# Entry
Amino acid sequence: MARNPKQTASEADGVSYRRARTWEIALSQMNNGSAMIFYTLVGLMSYVQNAGYGIAVAAAGIVLTVTRVFDGLIDPVLALIIERVTFPFGKLRFFMLGGWLIRSLAILMLFVWAPDTGLGAVFFIAIYLVYIVGSSMNDIAGQMTGPVLTNDPRQRPTVQVWSTVYAYFVPAIFSIVSTVVFLPRHGNRFTVEMLSETAITFVACSLVFQILACIGVTRIDKPENFAHLTDARAKADVSMRDMWNLLTKNGPFQRYLISGASDKLAQVVKSQAVIATLMWGILLGNMQLGSVLGLIAILPGIVFAIFGARYTGKYGSKAATVTWTWICLVLAVVLTVFCLSVDMGSILASLPLTIAFFLVYLLLNGASMVVTVASGTMRADVIDYELDRTGKYLPATVTATYNIVDQIISSLGATLALGAVALIGFTTAMPQPTDSPTTPILVMSLVLFFGLPILGWACTLVAMRGYKLTRTEMIDVQKRVAERKGSLASTELADVAV
# Structure
């Protein structure tokens, strides 16, 4: 018997979805790869501050933290500019390349052209602020590519998979290049020459990623793909009022923010070096284990991301988020009970305990990857819902508003981690891997490493209870948007005929 061909999402849902080719998705998300290269360079920024501009180590950290406030302020301004500007060829490539050019020139100035010239902290801060402007411009435009490329619910999660692949592999590869290739050539010292050579190479590589990303969005980077659902004769400029309206009246976006913010705070705190020292160095007795396990977890994590994309495409972002958040929460509780039930110092000395710990930890990492994929799809759903709700297409505004919260949370992460460590006695000296494990260290480590994520996942589950953009509702949203676009097109044709 001949097999019946599988229905496409458009056929199954009765909606003519906009779809992208796989290679377009893969190339477009290379913008994230380019951003990750600069992210790796920013990780070396404190060395540039100290070696090239004479800024003290303590002051260097303060400078990088305070400038995050500027980052949060500039995002909404840039978002409004991006929303309001339209070129005959679109806008994505202009702002992606423009942002790349600004951030590249700033990096070359800071790492290559200006060190050891006598210019001090004021010059460094000024150029770093210029870098932030370029970075925000590029990132907002890059994050807009997914919602514009496709609104097919089965395909949208694939965008997040490719973005995640670049987010994991690119910084890992370029960090290795920095420490294995460039550092030994300069006597294993972070000298100005070493940093300069690294920056030139990284910027050149980022240009390749950026060009490929622009190729990936060429077909869809057209003015009609950014149009509002308003009469062409009506003025539909985007303003701060629209951003405020988004924050105060878009219920799904509010719940998406709560979910993302709670998870982000837990992630940022958990990733702090001082928490890694407590968990891997003091309690488990192997400081390098955390880094090794992080690299090992990449491949199974990508496998989970691919599975998560299919799951999200079939059941919707809300169902995927709720199901896999529950799985994350249960696995984290299991790990917490496991660590409280055994002597953590003996885990690596016992093969059964080691296997049990690693297996559950890798499963937890994989499950959280599915939540990440669903979260990326959820943002695209919120953008389309806002178009249906207000008639305005605001991908940059949604992205920038979320980024503001992300910046605030990220800046709080280090403060929360250091404050928690101070509570258990580390007020004048930082924890070292050679310190002896104590009960306060055990309790605080588990609270920060597993307890805070559990709290974040619980907040997500509460927020999702009132989140109404289910798989079925999003089909209805796309139908209403398509009907309104068709009606507007008919009206415009009638006007032309008259």
Summary: The mean pLDDT is 85.
